[in-house]
Structure formats: C-alpha cells, structure tokens
Design goal:
Shape: elongated
Structural class: alpha+beta
Strand content: 35-45%
Mean pLDDT: 92
Order of helices and strands: EHEEHEEHEEEEHE
C-alpha cells in the first residue's frame, strides 16, 4: 500500500455535487476503472479518500486534490485517462502521482486564489469596477465573519491579497488570493462587502472558481 494524490478539476454541472456525493462519485469511478484502491479491514470496510479544502457547493475549481491509498506498487499506467473515461460531466483528472514521503501536508495550505465573476443583466453599471478597486484599497474593510465558533468582526483586508479587477461587457471579474486553512475567508465575503459598503450597486449573480492553492511562502501546493 502507498499514498497517491490526484489533482482534478470540478467544473460545469459538477460544481453542484455536494462534498459527500463527490466522495461517493470518486470511489465509484475508481472502482469502474479498476483502480487498486486500498480498503480498511474489519466489518465495515471502506476506502480511504480525502479531499483537501473541499469546495462549497456551487463553486468550481481547477486545482483540487484527492488523497487515496492503493495496493499496487505504482500508479497504474494511463490512470488519468481511465478515470476521465468514467467520470461524470464536469469532473476531470489532471494528474495522479505517488506520495512516497507523505507529500505536502494539507495543513500547509494557507492561501487560495479565486476568480470571482459578478454578472449583470445588461451593461456593467458605470463606475462599479473602479468603486470595487477603491473599496479594497482601503487599509480596513470590516465585515462580520461567521464560523463554527460564532461571529466576529474582522478586517478582511488582512485576509486577502493580490486583487485585480477587470471589466467586460456584462460582467466584472476579480482575481484574488484569500486566506485558507484555519484562517479561511471565503471569496463570497468580497461580494458581501460590496453589498455592505457599495449598496448603490446590485449584483444579480456571482460565480466563484478556485484557480490555485499555496503554502505560507507562496509555493504552489502539490
């Protein structure tokens, strides 16, 4: 038995698959392509599969990671192609590689890079993009952050970096890096801050797509 890690994308219709259903889908797909998954022993046998930083339902991502154990001495040849042949629409394996030394620890992830799309039914409201830039140039942007421990007011500027904002015909796109792990801040808080600080703008719909995840020193997680 050894550990393996898969980098995969969750896009399109697959972004509406819940985390629990994603785990079931991964195991069924691996069984269909005869991936030699390792199962626990005992009465209630189950495969070990674990996703790093599961996406919220409705989010898409191109830099997702699944850890699992296999019984063979190497990742099967053409494993990526075999999985993609049986995956449902929107799931896509990118690479699978062994973690002989245990690999980078999921707990080392401290930043996630997202693409946020704010869409409008007609043209982008005049001044919206620049108003968003000005808002997040402020040194302090306070917002109520919710967690399992309750609610608290935080300065979200301390939990985000590298924001760029670009304007299209009917949408505005932001690329931002937000805190992950124990200090996680969802990219949805940017949308909430706009509603709070710029109430003159209505945003009909928003989309969130994870592009990358990084360790504390900015190295890409792998």
């Amino acid at each position: 038995m050894f550990k393996a890690r898969m980098k995969f994308a969750k896009e399109g219709r697959a972004r509406y698959i819940s985390h629990l259903d994603l785990m079931h889908t991964m195991q069924r797909s691996m069984a269909r392509c005869q991936m030699p998954l390792w199962f626990t022993e005992g009465f209630n046998q189950h495969a070990y599969v674990s996703v790093a930083l599961p996406l919220s339902t409705g989010y898409s991502g191109e830099c997702e990671f699944l850890d699992f154990n296999i019984t063979s001495e190497a990742v099967p040849e053409n494993a990526v192609e075999a999985l993609n042949d049986v995956f449902p629409e929107g799931l896509r394996a990118i690479e699978i590689y062994p973690q002989s030394d245990g690999g980078m620890k999921v707990g080392s992830i401290e930043w996630s890079q997202y693409r946020i799309t704010w869409g409008f039914e007609e043209d982008v409201p005049a001044g919206f993009a620049e108003a968003v830039r000005d808002l997040f140039r402020r040194p302090v942007v306070e917002i109520v952050k919710r967690s399992k421990r309750g609610e608290k007011i935080v300065n979200m500027r301390e939990l985000m970096r590298d924001l760029t904002v670009s304007e299209g015909e009917q949408e505005v796109t932001a690329v931002v890096t937000t805190a992950a792990g124990n200090n996680n801040m969802s990219p949805e808080y940017l949308t909430r801050a706009i509603h709070q600080y710029l109430p003159q703008y209505e945003i009909p719909f928003s989309e969130y797509h994870r592009m990358n995840v990084f360790t504390a020193d900015g190295a890409p997680f792998r």
